[in-house]
Amino acid sequence: MARKRPAEELSTEELRRLLIERQRSERRSRLDHFRRTGRVIPVEPAPTRAEIDSLRSVPLEDQAQKIKEERKSKRKRWVDRLLLVVEVAAVLGLVWIAYTGFNVLRSLNREVSSVLQQPTLTPTPLIMAVVLPSGHTPPDSPGGARPNEAEIPEHLRPLVQSIADLPVPTPGPQQAIRLQIPAIKVDAPVVQGDGWEQLKKGVGQLLNTPDPGDDGNIVLSAHNDVFGEIFRHLDELQPGDEVILFTSQRTYTYVITDSQIVEPTQVEVIEPTSDPTLTLISCYPYMVDKKRIVVSASLKG
Question: CB-side exposure of 256: number of CA atoms within 13 Å?
Fold first, then answer.
């Protein structure tokens, strides 16, 4: 290990180097102190000679072109980002428009549906409040059997004519299609409507009266002395006798409870009832036809 020599033995050059080393050491200490206390910010090192030489080897025109391309690429990246934002906003706008349109369409559909839904109308009593069905003149009267307009009050005849022009609905699976009364050997088809033409085909059901088995008053009528004399012996029925109504799906049995002779204008006998009821009507007496025989029955069971 070299022995430290006193300052008197050192040459001028050695003293100068020693002073420079001490100054460098003190400067490093101060820089380290400043760096630790945050008073010095590190900077990038200066480019090396090789980097400088490489830059000098590139022509100025190429350097300018490279700078332009870098700026253009940077500008293009910003434009692409802006276009991406615009596209996302457009897609979100279309989704919002579709959602709003769907809600508006659904609201309009609900409004239209509520307008189209109409309350079920109760049949007007005027349809069956003029005269009882099956009225006609006797077959041996002058002119033969024909609808008896004389029994209809004159001021109500236009109303009866308008009712006769009502269309007859197409029978449904729940409507009566056949009638049997074993006690008087009746087995006849049932048609909708009880006008003059319908009663030529069989037993007619008054329009707007309920289907078999339903609550209410089913009104059936037929002639007693023309078109097969289907209800010729209606007056022979007794309480307890059965009347069987057929639909296309099942049968219903009614039991006779009462019978009466009434005037043609006593339409209260065909008013609606709260229980399943059957009313059979025909002209009376035989070959006279000035009144009506009305037989009532209730649903069995």
Answer: 21
pLDDT for the residue 78:
85
Q: What is the pTM of this model?
A: 0.57
Selecting from 2.40.260.10, 2.60.40.290, 2.60.40.1120, 3.40.50.1820, what CATH number does the domain 138-150+173-299 have?
Answer: 2.40.260.10
| Maximum pairwise Cα distance, the chain | 176
Partner residues linked to 33 by β-bridges: none
pLDDT of residue 212: 96
**10-residue averages of pLDDT along the chain (301 residues):** 63 78 83 73 60 57 67 79 88 90 85 69 50 89 86 73 63 90 96 91 93 96 95 96 95 97 93 95 94 96 79
The 3 state secondary structure assigned to the chain is CCCCCCHHHCCHHHHHHHHHHHHHHHHHHHHHHHHHCCCCCCCCCCCCHHHHHHHHHCCHHHHHHHHHHHHHHHHHHHHHHHHHHHHHHHHHHHHHHHHHHHHHHHHHHHHHHHHHCCCCCCCCHHHHCCCCCCCECCCCCCCCCCECHHHCCHHHHHHHHHHHCCCCCCCCCCCCCEEEEHHHCEEEEEEECCCCCHHHCCEEECCCCCCCCCCEEEEEECCCCCCCCCCCCHHHCCCCCEEEEECCCCEEEEEEEEEEEECCCCHHHHCCCCCEEEEEEEEECCCCCCEEEEEEEEECC
Determine the Cα–Cα distance for residues 254 and 217; give it in Å rounded to an integer.
12
139, 287 contact by CB (below 8 A): yes
**Residue 263 identity (one-letter amino acid):** E
Beta carbons of 202 and 194 less than 8 angstroms apart: no
Q: Comparing C-alpha atoms, which of 133, 136, 75, 68 is closest to residue 279?
A: 133
